[in-house]
Queue: 3 jobs
Job 1
Amino acid sequence: MEINALNIRFNYQYRDAGNYKKYGSVVFSNPNQLSVEVILEQLKDALIDQEYFIPQACKVPLIYNYSFDPELDHEWYEFDCLEETSESVTNERTIEIFIKDCSNGNLHTK
């Protein structure tokens, strides 16, 4: 019986000052075949208040709807969900390295 290793899709959103939302996702490899539950626990520990992150710190694509207005808008994105996927990887990092990057990058804001 062949075990099919699945990748992990990290889904997130940006909510601007007008409450308009834009969604994004990144697919990471999961070579150690961690369960979604284990990844979720580790990820929430790395995020600000277990759901927010700074996209530059976590190195994910920016997804602003309109021009960024620093007087009204903010830099924090919201974590939406994780899911296993057979989609191709869209980022060269593993899910574990991504979590480490988020943890290190968000430290100064916690």
Job 2
Amino acid sequence: MSAATVVHAPLGRPIARTATPQRHLAWLAGGLLFSFCVPFLLADRLQLPRDLYYGLYAASVIGLCAGWMRDTGQSLGALVSRRLGLALGLGLAAAAVCVLLVLRTEDATSHPGGLAFVGAIVWRGLVYGAADGLLLTAFPILVVLTAFSGSRLRRRRRGRAAIVALALAASLLMTATYHLGYSDFRSEKVRKPIAGDLIWAAPVLATANPVGAPIAHAAMHVTAVAHSYETEVFLPPH
């Protein structure tokens, strides 16, 4: 592998790119396959208990992201420090929108109390939500931005806009393939998470920092656990 060359991302601080664009896009293709197979095999076919599934899913997502970073020479510190203040602010703003989305679209239901409820908040809300934010939004967007960070497209405004549009399209596709892994989303119902991805993707597209999407996703899932524990949209599988 050649020595790292420092180039500038379409948005945000410089990115050190040590792999070819084709290598990054190969990881994106693998991520799309992964995003379908994990829910399809573990939840739809094997029908694992929900909380066990969430643990395996989160571990798999971390493994995928860590593999891409290691293989292509990315630095976690560099990724999360890029426009960090703005990324946190936009992530919290997106989280507020997601909270309102859950409250306005889902009916309130009862939930367990005591330690069981606290555990659900942490496991089904924070852990599962953060994993969703990484896989569906942060990973595909950062892969595309990094793959094209040294291309000639960046020299023109329209080219930069095209890169951002491609990154968003990758995130929307990842969201679609993931949800199609669940049998109950193989219908018009899949439009709901795809539309929601426009909210989750905004902080990452604006900053090239991954932290905003997990914040927004976690807030949405925590709200779903607390407000509509048996929701058929925000906490698959069902």
Job 3
Amino acid sequence: MESFDSIVVGGGLAGALLAFSLEQKGHKVVLYSYQQEGESTRVSSGLVNPVTGMRFVKTWNIEVLLEELVSFYRNIESILNIEILYETDIVVRLENAAEENAWLSRSGEEEYKQWISSEEEMDEFKHIMIDSLSLGKIRNAWRVDIQGLMNAVNHYLGVKGVLRNEKFKYTELRSQETGWLYQNTIHGKHIIFCEGFRINENPFFNWLPVYPLKGEHITVTIDEIAINDVMLGHYTLIPWKNGNYWLGANYQVNDIQMGITPAERQLQEEFLQQTLTKPFRTIHHDYGIRPASRDRRPIVGEHPSCKNMYVMNGFGTKGTSLTPYCVSQLIDSIIDHSTISTDIDIKRFVKKGYYKNN
């Protein structure tokens, strides 16, 4: 019999960072991390954009999220001796009068002045772009090297003996007065599920209103340019590794068909052809399926009837920014019995009748 403070199921960004954070707090933890097709973490751009959408609205709770994530990722950098967090600006292509008017309206609002501006000094973009109406700039954005982060965290957890590369079997989990027994050999005081879009296969949490949101991206090389900032239009162009660029992504709701689609690659390539004056070449095409919640907020907290069983899910396209905050909220709830913020607490869906105790 092996005994743990916490069993974590799901080795994507949320599960890995939760296991890492629990281990750092002195908890004995085991992480079941079985890679399956369609996981979004492995293809994530890691971009944290404080202003999003066609109407240029501040990301929910962005001030709190930024404070939490910068401290969180900087701490990991220090512990693991890596560099994965980078501050960036986002140059926005305003392609029609409606977008320009929406931007100008936002830039005049006091609460947006720290986030956006209509700056003219963007020569590095102007000479490589086919004409747009005008350009705007989003400030105080960040990018996390997700692949570098995951490699370092998984190596650390592997050395600590925390990782189990096994698919979790729900039928072999049993409730006990002291916690949860798995396969009659693993005991955990708590069990936490961080399974991404596959939460719908989980018999304990498949009632949650989480739907799959498929996204595809391409990696390209672009001749004769070297830009450092992110460019945002219909798609987002991000400076990437080895002088390449990440372009994406689309949003296909309730699409769990595995694999890439040639039609989406064509759309993304057409966007570049209509946007850039320089030739490019596609060198990679990939996809991932994100878990999105009905109200576009993460879902964190304890199962309504299974004591010491928790979930952390529903990050949608904002896993990089939301995970540090949600990890902190959940750990404080488990260790110190703190109240989870009502905006992300699983209880909101229980109150709305999504959970039926049969």
